[in-house]
Amino acid sequence: MAVGSAVAWGQAPPATASAPATSTTAPTLARPVMVPPKLVGDPTVPYPEGASGDASVVLTLTIDKDGAVQSATADAVQEPFSSRAERAALAFRFEPATRDGTPVAVRIRMVLDFHPPPPPEPRVPDPPAEVKAAPNRAPGKPSARPSDGIEEVQVRGARGEPSRTATLSRAEVRQIPGTFGDPFRAIEIMPGVTPIVSGLPFFFVRGAPPGNVGYYLDGVRVPYLFHVGAGPSVVHPGLIDRVDLYSGGYPARYGRYSGGIVAGETLPQSTKLRGEYNVRAFDAGALVEAPFANGKGNVLLGGRYSYTAAILTLLSSATILDYWDYQARVAYDLGRDDRLSVFAFGAYDFLGEKTATETLTLFGTEFHRVDARYDHKLGSDGAIRTAVTLGIDRTRLQNDRFLRDRLLGTRTELSYRLGKVATLRAGADVQMDRYDIELNGGDLSPSNANIANAFPSRTDLALGARADFVLALAPTFDLTPGVRVDLFTSDGQSAMGVDPRLQSRVKAGSRVQLLSALGLAHQPPSFVIPVPGFQPGGLRGGLQKALQESFGVEVDLGGSTTVTATLFHNAFFDMSDALSVTTPQVNGCPPGAFPADTIAGDPGRQPTGNGSRCSPRFPNGQIGPDRSGGGGQASQTSGDAQNARAFETRATGSAYGFELFLKRKLTSRIGGFVSYTLSRSTRTANNATFIASFDRTHVLNAAIAVDLGRNWRAGARGTFYTGLPKAPDPTNPGATRLDPFYKVDLRLEKRWQLNQRFWISAVAEWVNVTFTKESVGTNCTLNGCVEQKVGPVTIPSIGVEGGF
User: Fold this and answer.
1) Domain 274-582+618-803 CATH superfamily
2) 170-266: what fold?
3) Which of 161, 262, 165 is nearest to 212 (CA)?
4) Where in the chain are the domains?
5) Element (H, E) at 88
6) Is the peptide bond before 80 cis (omega within 30 degrees of 0)?
7) What is the pLDDT of residues 116-166, one digit of tens each?
8) pTM (global) more than 0.85
9) In this predicted model, what pLDDT tens digit does every residue of 299-332 receive, in sequence order?
């Protein structure tokens, strides 16, 4: 069969060492005496059946030290050409790249040019497949082509952080039903992640509660990543390059959280005009980016607006739901080695309920960030970034009361090559947060007084310094020791955390790697879930601490398929985790339950009655598995007096388990993944040890994505997890857990390539087509316990996406 494709291989600039680079992180280091990989043989890429016209597909290839292509991802979707190019490139072979004569793994960009084959002559068979020659080249030989600056070679230094959970490209995330093409939504399917309630964007990560999981975007701390309820992320997906989940033992760059870290990195500045848009039943979004000043500068604008409020008004006139977000970035090259950029982004969310007299606020938040950065290369051996961040966070309570946090921070990040085997990564930062409460007309009611007491007006200060060394001790052995030191002050108190970290990667064969991570992490007292402005004042009880350790095996099975198996253990000390803490016996209530008018973890407060009204684990209005509101009512319920001291509940505990992640590239003709976690989380409080209230023994996610041909793609995803621990039920003493939960999500897409640049897709997606309800708690009386269920939370969506 005739083919019409040509390969263009970009000229390689000096290569970089350390993690895969983007211009959004501190500029990476250059390596001397770098020889790029060389394509072996004449690649053959069949022209897609049913396609027409010419096309050029830019691919990012990851090539291992043996010259094999480990992954191939198209920079832009140009179906059917991009998927054909990705599949074909996986079979390419290269002479490996070398650094100082030693083979190294690299990431390169190359171009595949598609040209339609000439029509066959009458009664003459189609000519055999071949690669069309480029101008001034011998037939079948790849040509060198600068291709407007897209060429680059990036050495994968430590070949990825051992503590980083397997990540998915944005092209793959788009194929996962239930994520709506949102890279941050892929976090919920990763091993080690346990949801509070399906659909809510708050997770336990290896046993650590949501309030102990940190969120970063380009190194900037953000309070939350998702819009209210089951909404999308607060950043347009067209801006995101990758999202990394660090479940524990993470690099020294990240700290001040004793749970996991979710770190998003934005795409580098584009040298060409590009844009994306989407319109769905509940929101619309767009992003456009353009260079200026002959490529020295770049400007990007993006955002999303929800018209859910108008739709909900038709279905339920009493419900109000609204959200929006924005992103803006301007960058300019001051010289060959200097770049100045400003990145601004923010989000707004409101969930309310109309009554006859007023509108009740169930959830209302907003945050804004402005991050100004100056990047400078230190010759060929290193780079440094200095940045200043301004921000404001606000959460709305009832009666136009707001908890507010105004922040000012500065940070410096350095990366420097110390020799052939060592790279230093260091940094320091200072952040000042000014917390206060905005009262309506200076109202000093008892309710406001309780809030002010729990979250007093004050200025908190955090100072930190960190450093680690990426040591390539042998071609098969990498070691990364590091340490960070943080000093915290709040409400007249101070505390210091010293966090040593150690990671290693050992190549045990051509396809097998052994990964290990160990680290200590400290964090000030925290609220149960991340809500803007809800940071407890003072350091009563000291810092939270966590010892995180893991060991894993990563195996390349070939055919774009990998599997990773990991054992982990986390030990928690002085955790302010009101979500997980229970008390065996309180004032006549059964184990794991509280009188309806007491504070969780505060048995000293006596009930008004005889203890006959018992509520499992949490009193009315508190966040927990026994409240159907889950975490979505945090800002409202936290204003109640009975919740004022919930965060002061301290406990020790542990989490241990096994994680499995099997993945075949989802952009393959048939791709998919299996993500499974077997774990147990325990807590010890009030001299008793018990299973954490949000422990789930089994968490399973599995998905399949299929290319149906003619630009149709379909996918299905299944989710299953075991139920939460159940409060003791005298009428059913053998029941220890609530009912398990399962759901199925579906996705169907039809894509049209209008020309070489413009494309448009129609996407139908449905979350929870099984209409499954979820058990979130129990309602217990002396007559027994009845399970409380929510849902079914089911979200059908029909939308249009496009770009250029």
Assistant:
1) TonB-dependent receptor, beta-barrel domain (2.40.170.20)
2) Ferric Hydroxamate Uptake Protein; Chain A, domain 1 (2.170.130)
3) 262
4) 5-155, 170-266, 274-582+618-803
5) helix 81-89
6) yes
7) 776 544 443 333 333 333 333 333 333 333 333 323 343 332 345 676 665
8) no
9) 999 999 988 755 555 556 677 788 999 999 999 9
